[in-house]
Amino acid sequence: MIYFNEEKQYFHLCSGDVSYVIGIEREQWPVHLYWGKTIKDWHNGAPLSFDEFTFSPGPFGDDLRFSTDTLPLEYPSADAGDFRESLLGVEWEDGTRVCDLRYKDHRIVQGKPMPEGLPAVYTEDDSEAETLILRLEDEAGALEVELWYTVFAAHPAICRSAHYRNKGAAPFYLTGACSANVDFRENELDLITLWGGHNNERNWERRRIAHGTNEIGSIRGASSHNFSPFIALCRPETTEFSGDVWSMNFVYSGNFKAVAHASHNAAVRLSMGLNEQRFRWKMMPGDTFPVPETVLVYSADGFNGMSGTYHELYRTRLARGKWRDKERPVLLNNWEATYYDFNEETLCSLAQQGRELGVELFVLDDGWYGYRHNEHTSLGDWKPHREKFPDGMDSLVKRITDMGMRFGLWFEPEMVSVDSDLYRAHPDWVIAAPGRSPYYARGNGQMILDLSRNDVCDYIIQSLSDMLQNPSITYVKWDMNRHMTGVHSNALPADRQGEVSHRYILGLYHILETLTRRFPEVLFECCSGGGGRFDPGMLYYMPQTWTSDNSDAVCRLKIQYATSLMFPAISMGCHVSACPNHQVGRSTPLATRTTVAMSGNLGYELNITKLSDEEKQCIRRDIALYKQIRHTVQFGRFYRLLSPYAGNDTAWCFVSPDGSEVVAMYIKELTEPVPQTRLLRLAGLDADAQYRDTATSQVYGGDELMNSGIAVPYEKSDFTERLWIFRQC
Ligand code: DGJ
Which of 407, 546, 557, 710 is deepest in the core (most CB within 10 A)? Predict the structure, then answer.
């Protein structure tokens, strides 16, 4: 998988059908030569560096045409002749900030080394991957940087990370830390990013790259609803099914930045790493610092090709635990059904009704602990509410599990209410700047616990473990509902305050590692006001995420469509909720809400006891249908067919792992004034196979369904849907 040509000093990395070529320029600079469709060998010897104007100072007095400012670098240094984005920042003891990294040596190891304390793509056997480790050193000798590149036999993806070590005798500060960079020697490219907000996560945005710095990121203490740690470049002609796309996705859940910098010399630098705002890390002699990993995916087959690689890799080698390969249960969540207003009886009647309709997991959301009747109190006091549960929680859990359902519980472990026993006992445990007024969120008293402290992490682990001692609790929804302000820890000295944001995330990962190992039977679902922390870092610990608090079927089309750029359907929580919708006030047919929710892990979040008999009948039928197709939806190959960003219709399809079943879904937003029959062309089928439509028994050829398409009949109504199941015959 990894070949080194000693004579010509280049590395050829082959990952699936993708090649990545790195050269060592003048024996000192690792340079980027190629990333794309697989090639047999590398012969291109064209010069890489030019600067005829000598405005960019170079390292060779006798060759002023050589400039690191135009060199396609694998890991650009700081203040060392390259005026584009640096991948790292260093502040030495004497105040200087120069860091001039030069190649020293390399090694190639079998398998994939794992960074300590961080989430990362893993292997189950060393034969699955190979890793190239390039060792670089700063000219002055104190900083050593290892660049790790892992390639896989079965996945056309490359994982990159950087590992710093202070090998000098004095401390210094890191002021920037990125894991991956690719310098493209072309700039006729489009840039893809995902922007959003609460209730409106991950909107797909595509634009021609402009000269200068095109940056997205987060300084919120979480990857956030606002931008996803994902960035891609593609050719102007790239579509869902054809054309080149190069992408990066950061395996991290906190502050990040992704940059596409188009420079004067028709080149684009694409990089991913920690956001240097809110980051300053003290490196004592001997200290090491691993930068979280970035997953690089290239596809020659457009965005669907790229997504297919992410989906397979993330589903099988990023998500972990017993639930990774298990079908996910259909759940009923009480949040939008009751909000804070419930007791054991109301919950049991909801659950009973759910059970009768086929629900497999009942989830008790916010409001079950402390004396929480609204959002102002009790976060941190993870003990059952005495008025709502006079007999404790065990009685409710038993009643639900006796009905034959699983039981799940909501927590928001990283938070504390000012009005709580926890805050009264430990006011110093929150993140807040001393001597300044605190900023609150959600009502008047929600603060963030300082997860950079071990004692706080221990408290969270202990309080959740106490609740999870009841083995009948087999699901946890892990919520997080505010962003970080006044970033300061009472446990760290002044010169380490710049470490708080990253230490918080390391603390969070430690807690999650401990709890997921201690409670392997529990299915953990990530949530941050919906999809505010839907990132690969969290996926490593929790195999599914509540995609968005917005469960309106129309809004969900765009949200789920763009989320699927990197994340597989099995990682998306999708619920049917009441109408008018609580977030946007829209009414859509139950069938449409259901089809959209069936595109991920199906759940319900409404008061089903209040539905008409006819609606209950529909839900009973829908859940039964979902159980039939969920293996294909959750473990199959997914293709986006029609984009909600392009028009009125959205469509996608799932092909089962063995190819024998195809589930296609189509949703039309507004009806057209002129009746028309749309032909929907499917993808991923066997062109030579025959498929039977299970509803009509009509048989079609795979080639026919992919090239001519299936007819979508006209309906005189807004928000209509169609769902087809085809089986090979
Ligand atoms: C935000 C979540 O996204 C919702 O689903 C719900 O759990 C509320 N928090 C509860 O406070």
Answer: 546
Is residue 601 within 8 Å of 328, Cβ to Cβ? Answer: yes
Q: How far is the CA of 443 from the centre of ligand 1 (A)?
A: 14
Catalytic residue IDs: 479, 549
pLDDT at residue 638 in the model: 98
Which H or E element spans position 148?
Answer: strand 143-152
pLDDT in tens, 542-583: 999 999 999 999 999 999 999 999 999 999 999 999 999 999
Q: Each residue of 681-723: pLDDT tens digit? A: 999 999 999 999 999 999 999 999 999 999 999 999 999 999 9
Amino acid letter, 507: G
- Can you tell me the distance from the alpha carbon of 729 to that of 722, in angstroms, rounded to the nearest whole number? 22
- For residues 343 and 221, what is the distance between their CA atoms, to the nearest angstrom? 35
Name the β-bridge partners of 14. Answer: 19
- Through-space distance between the first and last CA atoms of the chain, rounded to whole angstroms: 39
Global pTM value: 0.98
- 590, 615 contact by CB (below 8 A): yes
Q: How far is the CA of 36 from the centre of ligand 1 (A)?
A: 42
* CA 339 to centroid of ligand 1, rounded, Å: 9
Q: For residue 51, what pLDDT is reported?
A: 66
- Pocket probe for ligand 1: among 410, 417, 525, 538, the residue whose CB has the most ligand atoms within 8 Å is 410
Q: How many CB atoms lie within 10 A of CB 32?
A: 21
**Strand runs (DSSP E) across 188-344, as ranges?**
190-197, 200-208, 212-218, 230-234, 245-250, 256-262, 268-274, 281-283, 288-299, 331-333
Q: Whose CA is nearest to atom 9 of ligand 1?
A: 529
Burial class (CB in 10 A: 0-12, 13-18, 19+), 55: exposed
How far, in Å, CA of 710 to CA of 723, rounded? Answer: 11
> What confidence tens digit (pLDDT) does each residue in 411-434 have?
999 999 999 999 999 999 999 999
Tokens of 393: 């929680």
Per-position DSSP letters for 556-579, written without gaps between them: HHHHHHHHTTTS-GGGEEEEEE-S
Give CA–CA dist 326/348, Å, rounded. 27
Bin 168: left if φ > 0, else alpha if -120 < ψ < 50, else beta. Answer: beta
CA 397, CA 391: separation in Å to the nearest integer? 11
